[in-house]
Write a sequence for this structure.
């Protein structure tokens, strides 16, 4: 523990270098802009801006990208409160009470409560990551191929059984991801798979081209189709409003603490920030003495979802850092970034790349402080972005996506691939198929396949190897429980109702 604290202070020294501080501020500003633009979202923004980091060291790059993520988390609250348009899916619950407060002339109080609650949720999750992640990573160092496959199996099953989308659609999206991950040269047999004669596909799809198309282009096409227009409330935050709101917030400490716990749990499991924010809001409404006022402009109704959403968004980075398994779409994109920079996500990061890991964790602390200060001081500026016509913003984002895809290999073929993935992403979103399991399968598909094959080679082809010891057997059973969780939950509910009757 003392060694970890020393490493954390070293991480602060890395983050406080002037260049990294500048990247942090730039990342937060870009992230808030992305968060303010409805629908673009943290994962899309990180995917689109990932190529900007190619010339940077991995530590500087991850600091900038993670700060884009924090900024996007903060930015989503601005449109929710002022315009009743959630900038992010997890900001939907914030509109329930945030916008009514703005309509009553309390926009400053609502935004201060949202930003501060977001900061508290993120801080709670970062402290948890600081304390827990090194222990998990140290334990995971003992993993062989069988244990690694079991962890991948648990991650895939959790997305299917515990995600908010229908399991069938999750499985379908995941299968497309596995197929895309299989394209290229098979490293074991040397055979070509699914290249269809295209020599450009010998090394498979580049993850970055795929996510820029799926997230960036797909979202732009959807937004163009919807033709968004914005009508909202003006807002100004002054020190007096901030101070008065801060004096009121400690009254909701129980709601805040409960939301932190819910958010961390949902973040580590792949359920994500959106269910966390709704669950936290629902429980707060049932347990609060002022529950009848929820939906009419109750500040506690802003505190609960914002705290849980940020705790979940931050906690999703724990499994990515410690096990190499992302807990959210944004974490999956960040994980892809680690691979592009030549780093292998997982427990070895804590041994071989201490500067990187602890620099990232330190940047989580400072990034959220900087983010809170920026959003509290620049709300009118960010709200003004929504008054720029989408006909100007849309083409700029499209050009950024094309440049990002081209710079991966300086190849026009990648731009074509990006557009193809964009259309696929658009169709999947229109038909409500989730993109996160697909991205997870693209990132982890080949690694899971490699671990699976190595395990079978070592056992002479026996599937019993996945239940050959207590650890791997437990993880596999947890995976099966997660896979069939909806059925288990339904059976449990029926049994309780039958007993009660």
């Amino acid at each position: 523990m003392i060694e970890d604290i020393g490493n954390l202070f070293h991480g602060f020294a890395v983050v406080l270098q002037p260049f990294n501080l500048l990247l942090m501020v730039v990342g937060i500003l870009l992230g808030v802009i992305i968060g303010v633009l409805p629908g673009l979202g943290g994962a899309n923004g990180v995917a689109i801006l990932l190529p900007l980091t190619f010339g940077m060291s991995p530590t500087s790059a991850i600091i900038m990208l993670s700060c884009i993520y924090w900024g996007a988390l903060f930015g989503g609250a601005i449109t929710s409160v002022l315009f009743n348009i959630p900038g992010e899916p997890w900001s939907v619950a914030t509109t329930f009470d945030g916008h009514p407060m703005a309509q009553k002339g309390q926009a400053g109080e609502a935004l201060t409560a949202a930003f501060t609650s977001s900061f508290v949720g993120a801080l709670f999750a970062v402290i948890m990551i600081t304390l827990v992640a090194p222990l998990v990573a140290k334990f995971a160092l003992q993993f062989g191929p069988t244990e690694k496959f079991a962890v991948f199996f648990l991650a895939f099953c959790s997305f299917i059984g515990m995600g908010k989308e229908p399991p069938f659609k999750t499985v379908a999206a995941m299968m497309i991801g596995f197929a895309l991950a299989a394209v290229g040269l098979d490293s074991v047999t040397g055979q070509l798979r699914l290249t269809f004669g295209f020599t450009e596909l010998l090394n498979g799809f580049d993850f970055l081209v795929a996510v820029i198309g799926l997230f960036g282009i797909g979202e732009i096409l959807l937004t163009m189709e919807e033709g968004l227009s914005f009508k909202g409330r003006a807002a100004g935050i002054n020190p007096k409003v901030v101070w008065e709101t801060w004096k009121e917030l400690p009254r909701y400490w129980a709601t805040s603490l409960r939301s932190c716990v819910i958010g961390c749990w949902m973040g580590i499991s792949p359920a994500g920030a959106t269910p966390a924010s709704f669950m936290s809001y629902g429980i707060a409404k049932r347990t609060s003495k002022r529950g009848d006022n929820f939906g009419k402009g109750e500040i506690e109704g802003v505190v609960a979802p914002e705290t849980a959403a940020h705790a979940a968004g931050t906690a999703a980075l724990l499994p990515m850092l410690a096990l190499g398994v992302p807990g959210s779409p944004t974490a999956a994109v960040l994980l892809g970034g680690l691979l592009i920079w030549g780093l292998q996500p997982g427990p070895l990061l804590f041994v071989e790349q201490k500067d990187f890991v602890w620099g990232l964790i330190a940047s989580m602390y400072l990034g959220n402080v900087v983010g809170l200060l920026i959003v509290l001081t620049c709300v009118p500026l960010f709200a003004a972005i929504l008054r720029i016509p989408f006909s100007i913003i849309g083409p700029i984002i499209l050009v950024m996506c094309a440049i990002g895809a081209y710079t991966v290999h300086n190849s026009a073929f990648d731009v074509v691939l990006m557009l193809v993935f964009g259309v696929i992403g658009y169709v999947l979103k229109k038909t409500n198929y989730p993109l996160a399991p697909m991205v997870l399968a693209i990132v982890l598909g080949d690694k899971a396949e490699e671990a699976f094959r190595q395990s079978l080679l070592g056992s002479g082809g026996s599937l019993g190897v996945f239940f050959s010891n207590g650890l791997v057997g437990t993880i596999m059973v947890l995976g099966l429980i997660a896979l069939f969780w909806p059925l288990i939950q339904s059976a449990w509910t029926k049994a309780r109702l039958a007993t009660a009757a």
